[in-house]
Amino acid sequence: MSTIAVPEIAAQPIPERRGRRLPYVSLAIVATFVLAGVLAPLLSPSDPLEQALRLKFRPPVWEERGTWANPLGTDRLGRDMLSRMLWGSRVSLAAGVLTVLLASAFGAAVGLVAGYYGGRVDAALMRVTDATLSFPVILLALILAVTVGPSFGNVVIAIAVILWARYARVIRGQVLTLMELDFIAQARIAGAGAWRIITRHLVPNTLNTLVVLVTLQIGYVIIVEASLSFLGAGIPPPTPAWGSMIAEGREFVTSAWWVSFFPGLAILLVVLAFNLLGDWLRDTLDPKLRQL
Amino acid sequence: MIRFVVVRLLQSLVALAILTIVVFILARATGDPLHMILPMSATEEDYANARAYLGLDKPYVHQYLSFVGKAVTGDFGNSIRARKPVVELLQERLPNSLKLALFAMIVSLGLAFPLGVMAAVKKDTAIDRIAQIVAVLGQSLPTFWVAIILVEVVAGRLQWLPAGGITGFSSYVLPGFTLGWFVVAGMMRLLRSGMLEVLDSEYVKLARVKGVVEHRVIWLHALKNALIPVVTFAGIYFAILVTTAIVVETVFAWPGLGRLAYDGITSRDFPVIQAVVLTTAAIVAAVNLCVDCLYAFIDPRIRYAR
Amino acid sequence: MTRISRIVGATILSVTVAIVGATDHAPAQAKTELTVALSSFSAETLDPALQGHNVKYYLSLIFDYLVGVTPEGQLTPAGGLASKWEPSADHKRWTFHLRKGVKFHTGEEMTSEDVKFSLQRAMSKRSTTGYAGPLRTLIQDIETPAPDRVVIVLKQPTLIIPTYLSRSLSTEGMVLPKKYIEANGDDVFARKPVGTGPYKFVEQVTGSHIKLTAVDNHWRLGVPKYKNVTFRLISEETTRIAMLRRGEIDVADVSRERVKELEREGFPVHFRKDEAVLQLWFVLGPDGWVAPTKDKRVREALNLAIDRKEIAQAIFAGRAEPAAVPFGLTWSWAHVGFKATPDMAYPYDPARAKKLLADAGVGSGFPLDVYAFQLPGLPEGKAFAEAVAGYWEKIGVKPKLIPVDYPAFRKLWVDRKAPGAVGYYNIANRDWIGTYALLEKMAYTPSKLNATVNDPEIDGMIAQVMDQTDQAKINALMRNIFTRLRSEHYGVPVVYIHAAYATSKTLGKYSPGAVMYDLFIDTLASGKP
Strands C422-428, C269-282: parallel, antiparallel or unpaired by DSSP? Predict the structure, then answer.
């Protein structure tokens, strides 16, 4: 069976290998949820925070007892699941994207500086990076949550505070390799300053890696946020976030499956899409990248 | 080579030293443990008594120095909540954590291998895509949700396996699978890209030309070489498994380090927080050190890049 | 067939047998193991002097109390180490007559010296138990005129001593082995506790389990029915229920929401009725009440805005009933003869609530911080806080949910750093002395720290209870305190919650009793008919 596939690969010229088909499905999923989040105020049929205890645990419309008033049912406080899902995509995606942007910006900056200057600067920055990397993400987020209280901002900061170190490491490694190359030396001889070399030469050459890492980690952040909700340190109620919705609904997996199922499905689809998108980007942009 | 190892070791120690300061401050930022151990009716005098008894009335610098001074000798003080030496708690928990991580590691390797090889060999076919999706699924679901569904279905309904605690080998299956699946995607990616690289290389082509049977090419030549990054990364994954087990430990009532840390944080048990963070950090550092040395051993260029 | 394949075959067979054996949980005729799964173990300290109420679940099996109680909470000479007790005429000397021939797990006989030692230990500076403070102020001396007689000499007359040293309150009444502790030190004792109870300590793995084994013969229970009793800490409910279904555990605390499902499957669920009153209270400022909740009308409006029946149904799955009196601990009402009359019940009346707010000059609403935290035994905590905030929003108040964990809230509250905010607690129901002790701390301003009521009239009544030795007069005072707490709306009592404990199908009769933080697991183990 393998005789068919392998020669094909071997025969493929490199440019074509890079031209792997666009992951349309993943793109469509991400686009759908982004739109849902952006348009949540227009799309959601009711206020995601409006509670009606008498209407608690209404099942989705296709089940017995379900009504069109709550197409995806209601949660334990009688809030409309569909509206919460829509607003949830806004909150969860925003948390994922913001965290990763924050972490990657800071981490990349550290990596660039460390790689460019080398020596003591590098050593000092890398020791801090090592220390950060060895601190378990969830524990730090828990500590921050009990210290300053959980909130959207604090969750974003708590995860970013740990995540930046991975970017710093990877980018520094790339910069080290780039610094060996001739064009940097040439730029130096031509009298380019540090700022110019970093922004004109190093940043563009590490951008691919950064894009791949960012895409792969948005999903990771959404999952970490959900885990934090489970431990009581995620984005707090009543804000609708997928993670906290699953965490709240987990007690009712048998009696009201829809409360945790829909946000679970949403997380699954979005994270899967981001991961596959990231894998595709890696294959296309930076096939040698191995970091998570 | 020896110089490289020594330098790396020193670097790890410096990172750990930085961490002692960070964790000391963070632990104290969480609040006041006395509110957990004293009854609601405690008077201000009771608070003062307890504070003195626990040594929390001393200046921070003093507390820090005594923490570090003792930690160096392997003494992390007494747990404020359990009133036992923290080392005893670590001794109870650490083996459980390591065993679970090891089992999860075996599970994830067991899944990642066939998936990764299949995906590489059948690159860009439906099989490749399905293998990738199966692997990535583990990373795309919140661990606690997977865990709870497994407990409900496999333990509660089908009653095949124990739901919680450690009662024997069967207790490892559910938490090990939940935890292991989470890192399958990463390993599978490594293996797949490694395999692709090797399959594309000159010497595999040469082997083919020489007429080596195809499955021998895949299994012997390609896999052997693609394994190196997997083995080196396996160490890092092991560290990830030890440190992210907290959610799995909670659901499966697994007495490991993660749960200890969680209890430590919620009860503001400073010595426990400090000890768990430093222990896990030391494990991570040790693993990284081994991996780096292994790398440097395989690929001497790295020694100079650092 | 090679040797290896035979070994493999045998292994597979034995694994299959093991799995089938584990799955098919046959009810053995004489079950020797009892396993209790709890969602929380509290501090997991096995030294009674280092813990308050919350550890009684397991400590009550290792230790006996000086004064015993029935599972319903009545003091009884049959349940404790004292078979008789009487006060002097002035109520300043209490004499306790001890049971003879009771032995510690070490084999040594329990004497009055041990009782004296235990009490002194409970009152020591190191002790962090709930009632160490009051005992320190009350007790002047402890005399041991004979090995079977202890006399407690008090600084002032009081009726509360037997109850304070009984199983109905905290851990101060547990009798510990003097010689063992003096010979081995406090640390060894905390790790290997020794008592006179029906079960001996075997093993503790913190965060996992506590294992006990039966004594040969216990003065109260005879030969215990179960050889071993294990308490397992299983924090996730789904896991506890799965273990129950698999027959891994015999007793488990379950949330009210899952009761129906378990009963449908045939698992007996036992309730502790009115286990706690769930109440919201006002956090005082450094100088007492803070506007606008300083205004009685505002406090009444906050009470009227809540639909208690709906909360009982929707949040607590119907396993709760509306409450009307702040600190309305019903188990104590039976003792003091108080009854909540129908006119005390708060109707759900948002219209009147709005009017009251307008009368008080805050008709346009006001910001109100609501601290939302998770408490042991109250998995519904956060949903409850969200629901209450929702009701208040409907009358124009602007509640802000502040998610914290309980220790963080407690610090803010005790330090009075969150004036005017609202917190909540599932106040465990208790007898009149427990209630009095609670009010003394929470409604009696001179004791400060965690007071939530600031009212000189209530302070006066509480001070009188302290010095009173006439039970009838005490009862009258207590009734007046409850009446005033209700008429001044000193808190927002919402519901009485019933606690649910599910058991395996084969366990048989079980009642978790009516003593706070005690499950009376020993009644299950009783070897006597």
Answer: antiparallel
pLDDT, tens digit, for every residue of A179-191?
888 887 788 888 8
Q: Contact B199/A10, CB-based, under 8 Å?
A: yes
Residue A7: band (very low, low, confident or very high) from pLDDT cuts 50, 70, 90: very low
- My answer on whether B182 and B206 are in the same domain is yes
Q: Do residues B14 and B126 share a domain?
A: no
Same domain for B184 and B116?
A: yes
Residues B118 and B190 in one domain: yes
- B109 and B41, same domain (yes or no): no
Does the structure show a pLDDT above 60 at C27? no
Q: Do B57 and B177 reside in the same domain of the chain?
A: no
Q: Do A147 and B29 touch (CB under 8 A)?
A: yes
| Chain A positions in Cβ-Cβ contact with residue C314 (cut-off 8 Å) | 53-54, 56, 76-78
Q: What is the DSSP string of A48-77?
A: TT---GGGTTPPPTTSTT--TTSTT-B-TT
B122 and B66 part of one domain: no
Instruction: Tell me which chain A residue has its CA closest to the CA of residue C402.
Output: A149
Question: In the prediction, which pLDDT does C448 show?
Answer: 64
* For testing contact with chain B, the best of C238, C406, C450 (most B CBs within 10 A): C238
Asked if the Cβ–Cβ distance from A223 to B140 is below 8 Å, we say yes
Distances (CA, A) of A151 to A164, A236, C388, C437: 20, 6, 20, 37
Q: Where is mean pLDDT largest: B18-32, B66-80, B240-254, C341-355?
A: C341-355
Sign of the torsion formed by the C-alpha atoms of A285, A288, A289 and A292: positive
Hey, is the C-beta of A178 within 8 angstroms of any chain B C-beta? no
* Predicted confidence (pLDDT) per residue in C50-91, tens digit: 876 677 888 999 999 999 999 888 899 999 999 999 999 988
- The B residues from 203 to 262 touching A (CB cutoff 8 Å) are 205, 208, 214-215, 217-218, 229, 233, 243-244, 246-247, 250, 258, 261-262
Classify residue B296: in a domain, yes or no: no
* Structural domain total, chain B: 2
Residues B31 and C443: their CA atoms lie apart, in Å, by 26
Q: How confident is the model at residue A13 (pLDDT cuts 50, 70, 90)?
A: very low
- The three-state DSSP-derived secondary structure of B143-164 is HHHHHHHHHHHHHHHCCCCCCC
User: How close, in Å, is residue B45 to chain A by CA atoms?
Assistant: 25
Q: CB–CB of B46/C136 below 8 Å?
A: no
How is chain A split into domains, by residue range? Answer: 73-290
Asked if A146 reaches chain C (Cβ–Cβ under 8 Å), the answer is yes
Please indicate, yes or no, whether residues B63 and B119 belong to a single structural domain of this protein.
no
What is the residue type of C339? Answer: K
Cα–Cα dist B231/C153, whole Å: 73
Structural domains in chain C plus CATH codes: 35-250+504-525 (3.40.190.10), 273-498 (3.10.105.10)
Distance from the Cα of C341 to chain B's closest Cα (Å) equals 30
The residue with tokens 């501090």 is C43
Q: Which of A47, A50, A58, A76 to mutate to test the interface with C (most CBs of C within 10 A)?
A: A76
Residue B271 in domain? no
The Cα of B43 is separated from the nearest Cα of chain A by a number of Å equal to: 24
Cβ contacts of C205 on chain B, cutoff 8 Å: 92, 255
Identify the residue among A147, A251, A255 best suited for mutation to test binding to C, counting C beta carbons within 10 A and taking the highest.
Answer: A251
Listed by number, the residues of chain A in 103-162 with a beta carbon closer than 8 Å to a beta carbon of chain B are: 123, 126-128, 130-131, 133-140, 142-143, 146-147
pTM of the model: 0.87
ipTM: 0.85
Residue-range definition of the domain harbouring residue B121: 86-266
Residue B205, in any domain of the structure? yes
Q: What is the third-level CATH fold of A73-290?
A: MetI-like fold (1.10.3720)
**Which regions of C255-316 does DSSP assign to beta strands (E)?**
269-282
β-bridge partners, C36:
C231, C251
